[in-house]
Design a protein that fits this description.
CATH architecture of the largest domain: Beta Barrel
Number of strands: 8
Radius of gyration: 27 Å
Strand content: 15-25%
Structural class: alpha/beta
CATH class of the largest domain: Mainly Beta
Helix content: 25-40%
Strand order of the largest sheet: 2-4-5-8-6
Distance between the termini: 7 Å
Number of helices: 5
Order of helices and strands: HEHHEEEEEEHEH
CATH topology of the largest domain: OB fold (Dihydrolipoamide Acetyltransferase, E2P)
Shape: elongated
Amino acid sequence: MRWRFALTPKWIVRHVLVVALVVTMIFLGFWQLRRLDDKRTYKDLVAARQEQPVADVTEIVPAGATVDDDAVDAVLYRSVSAEGSYAEEDTVVIENRTLNGAPGAWVLTPLLLEDGTAVVVNRGFIGFDRAGVIVPPPPPTGTVRIEGLVLPSERRGSFGPRDPVAGRLDVLARVDLDRYAAQVDYPVLPAYLQLVTSDPDEPAPAEGGPALVALGPPVPDEGPHLAYAVQWFIFSTIAAGGYVLLLRKVAQVTQPV
């Protein structure tokens, strides 16, 4: 029997390893397809929310809610307007951000609203100045009317830097609205705005200094997940087919017992 070798302990171990490898690659392929579905769902959600009419931020973002409330999730990515005055002294920067490959930071300043609450506004991205530091530019003064996109507070994942839990910070690792609200003496809405337009406009940069660039609405894409899924399925096919060919070749050169 030329195939008897395949039932020896050595080859049984190889069978198990190859099957485990193929199953793992198939699992990774379907995992990439699930990631693709998530990206498409997110893309459709952002597009649908942005098609809704612009509303005042105080009408759709509930004051007193927490960042985890369903009522906040229901209005994320909506286009909203807000009117108030910036509290420049409470400006913070979000470090380790990039724009078109350039390193820098986001500049966040709270906009104080008529009802006494504030909405944190991501005014945009700024690069390093000639001295290699981030200097947040002053916001427009007086009454400012803006339009922006409602975005969720950010959380630290399994990895990444931690912000100190106490004290007043000028630099944050992420847009953590709970941490930010802990260092100001007025209520902060449980979502922030990514600036799209401002009236009056942001001041011009200092001579020779970096410009503040509004980020505008996000442009979701589907990413490379479909290509990755196809690759994993191809790899699994090659592994399975190659192993079968190997077994046939070994069987052909194996002499009958």
